[in-house]
Amino acid sequence: xxxxxxxxxxxxxxxxxxxxxxxxxxxxxxxxxxxxxxxxxxxxxxxxxxxxxxxxxxxxxxxxxxxxxxxxxxxxxxxxxxxxxxxxxxxxxxxxxxxx
Length: 100
Known about the structure:
Layout: H1 2-27, H2 35-57, H3 64-86, H4 91-99
C-alpha cells in the first residue's frame, strides 16, 4: 500500500511541475509540453496534480478542448473506480499483482 501511495504522490508532483513548466514556456513563447503528455500523466494517476496545476497556474483553463479531454479522463477514472467498488475488487490486490 505504501508503494501505491508513493507512486501517486510522485506522479501528481511530477505532473504539477510539468504543467507549471509548460505554463512558463507558454509565457516565453518557447517549446511546449505536448498536451498528450499531460493527459498521459493524468491518466496514470496524476489527475489531482494536473487539476491543481491548472488552477494554481491558471493553465489551460480557457481552452475548452483541453477541459473536455481532461474531464473525459476523470469520468473514465471514476467509472473504473465504481466498477471496482461494485464488484468488490480490492485495488491494492491488483496493484500488488502488477508490481510483482
